[in-house]
Specification:
The protein is α/β, with parallel strands linked by helices. The protein has helices at residues 22-31, 46-51, 63-74, 79-83, 88-92, 103-106, 126-136, and strands at 11-14, 35-38, 55-60, 99-102. 38% of the residues lie in helices and 13% in strands. Strand 1 (11-14), helix 1 (22-31) and strand 2 (35-38) form a beta-alpha-beta unit. Helix 3 (63-74) packs across helix 7 (126-136).
Length: 138
């Protein structure tokens, strides 16, 4: 499924993690005639999920890459904090029938914007990748 498969007469709320493309998806969908808002800061909030009156769209990203981007962009002081939002399964379970998109697939769409790209982010080396993977497996 891609965004253009969705019903334009419905209202949507993007509730993915930070550094997953929520702003980019929001712009892409609004540009294509959808009623959509971004609510990434509420992704892991059970009360918000229960009160949501729009159709939830959750955007995910490779968890290791998301944590690394989070760590670099927000200058997180611990690996644990950087990985916190990469545990998508916990957030997804909070929503009734969410639509889930993967950022890696959305980036292939013609005209999909790329907001908040972290141009100062260094490449992810294998030792850091393994540390992030170990933290995410806890």
């Amino acid at each position: 499924m891609i965004p253009s498969d969705l019903d334009k007469s419905k209202q949507y709320s993007i509730v993915g993690s930070p550094k997953c493309g929520t702003s980019s998806l929001g712009e892409y969908m609004r540009r294509n005639g959808y009623d959509v808002v971004e609510e990434e800061l509420n992704f892991m909030d059970k009360e918000y999920a229960e009160k949501l009156d729009r159709i939830p769209i959750i955007i995910t990203r490779d968890p290791v890459e998301r944590a690394w981007s989070d760590m670099s962009f927000f200058k997180r002081d611990t690996l644990e904090k950087a990985c916190e939002w990469s545990r998508y399964d916990e957030g997804i379970k909070l929503y009734n029938n969410p639509i889930v998109f993967k950022l890696e697939e959305l980036l292939k769409l013609k005209g999909f914007p790329h907001h908040n790209e972290n141009i100062t982010k260094t490449s992810l080396d294998m030792s850091t990748r393994k540390l992030i993977e170990m933290e995410l497996s806890k």
